[in-house]
Structure formats: structure tokens, C-alpha cells
UniProtKB/TrEMBL annotation:
The keyword Transmembrane helix applies. The chain crosses the membrane at residues 89-111, 261-282, 308-327. Its main location: membrane. Residues 106-173 form the PDZ domain. GO terms for molecular function: metallopeptidase activity. It comes from Romboutsia faecis. It is a multi-pass membrane protein. It holds the Pfam family Peptidase_M50. It is found in: Membrane. This is Zinc metalloprotease. Signal peptide: none annotated. Keywords: Hydrolase, Membrane, Metal-binding, Metalloprotease, Protease, Transmembrane, Transmembrane helix, Zinc.
Amino acid sequence: MTIIVALLLFSAIVFIHELGHFLFAKMNGIKVHEFSIGMGPKIYSIKKDTDYSIRLLPIGGFVSMEGEDEDSKDPRSFGEKSILQRASVIFAGPFFNIIFTIILFIPIFLFMGNQTTTLAGVAENGPAYQAGIRVGDTIEAVNGEQVKTWQDVIQSLNESDGSELKLSIDRNGKNEELTVTPEKNAEGRYVIGIETKVERNLFASIKNAFATTWDMIVQMVTFLGQLVTGTVPGGVGNSVTGPLGVINIVSQAAKVGIINVMYIAAVISLNLGIINLVPLPALDGGRLLMLAIEAIRGGKKIDPNKEAMINMVGLGALMLFMVFITYKDILRLF
């Protein structure tokens, strides 16, 4: 059952991606031959201007546009549209994945509550209590740097390396400067014995959803940079997960509850969106790069056959990489 949940979840995320391409293609007057949910043989379809179909394998979907991978003089073909129009269609897929991530995070934070920099607990005899910090205090800055989220506070503590910190505290509308020295706990993290106050409101959840999504984008871009430079901690094989690994992660999350599944879905959706923007052949980022080259050449189009060949080589390389990652997934599973 959990495997079915994982497959449906992955399909839903890919569907959102393809929906972005589809809607922007329609908005720009591009003829869409087929909009499919799933892959493999058709099991149901409705034929209008576009063939809306459901296919047997729930592992994604696709959008087939006129003139997308071949030369076509049809006024409604993809290739006959302006560079900006084509770029918007390509970018819409990853963009929809990013928006979907934010949408998923909002109910997650609404359910879990939003961590604030106001303190709900201070451990007696802990570093914070000894420094004079009390329940109800709001941490506004650490060593002169403003903190906006609880994660900022935690990060400042971890980066202190046990050195003395100056905290700016708001207490009943009055600002106080207190000095505290973090101590290392059993897990190897630096703490001062404080607990965050959790609030549940829609506005804070929306704000937190945007902030968390942005933080994750920064982390993913940093990781991609490490991937290119070969400086990934633990090696590529141990840091990247393929379809089997994703199914296993979702299956484990499904056993815990719907909130965990939604969180994993948000992470996968964002990964799909960001990775697709990498300027490699066969990815949306690669196609955007081709359009950028076309723009630099003053609108002179790249030979469709050459572009198709580049995308074919890129797809082959991605498939080989996927085989390698799947092999690593199998080793981890067994």
C-alpha cells in the first residue's frame, strides 16, 4: 500500500510540472496534441482540440506540443512563437513545482505550528537561565545580527563553537543585552537550554512556507555546486537518491502520517523543479539555455535536428546516471 502511495505521490508531482507546461502553452496559443497523466498504454482519453489521456503506468505524465521537437510551419507550433513565449512555457514546469512546494508547506506549518523567537521554556541551571534569560523573552539579535526565525537562533548557537554570545532580548517592550556561553549537548550541538514558543496562524504559516522554500532552494543550489566541483560530502552515490530511494522514503513517511508524506512531497517537488532548471541537455534548463543562445544570435534559430541530437545525448547521459543511482539505491535497500 505504501508503494502505491509513493507512486501516486510521484505522479502527482510530475503532473503539476507538466500542468505548468500545458497551461502556459495554451496561454501562448500553442497547439497541444496530448496532455497525459501517466505513461505507457492509454487506458482512457477524451479527444477535443487536445487529447486528454490517462495511461497505465502512474509514473508521471507528459505534454506533446506541435513543433516541440521537429520543424513545423504551423502558426500554432511551439517553434513559431517568440523566444519569450517559448521560455515561459519551458520555465512554467519548474515554476509550478516551486509554487506547489509552498502550497504544501502552508498546511504543514499550520498543523505543526510556527516556531518563534519568543521563549516558552528556559531550563533552570542552564546557560540561558544563569545569564538571566526568562520565559516570555524574545530574542531579537545574536552578536548584533538580527534573527528573524527560530532556525536563525539555532544556527547562531551551532556556529558559536562554544564561544560567548551577546543576545539582544525584548522583555515586556524593553531591550536588554545579555551574555551567554553555549554548551555542547549529548548530540554534539551547542545549546543554552531554551525552548521556542509555537504559534498557529495562517499568515505566519504562509510566511514560513516562503522562507523555508527559499532556504531549501539555497541548500539545493549549494549542493548542485558541490556536485559539479566533486566536493559532495560522502560522495555522489551516497548523497543522491533515485526513484527506488524516493519510493522507500515516501513509504516510510506514509507509515508515520499524512503530514510527513506532505513534507516529503514538498521536498521532492522542489527538487524536481530546481534540478530541471539545471542547464543540461534534455532538461528544461538545457532548453532555456538553447533559447538564450538563440537570443544572443539575434533570433537565429538553432537547427532543430542538431538540438534534438544534443537532447538525445543528454538524455542518454541522464539515463546512465539514473542507472548508477538506482544501483546505489538497491545496495542501500538490501
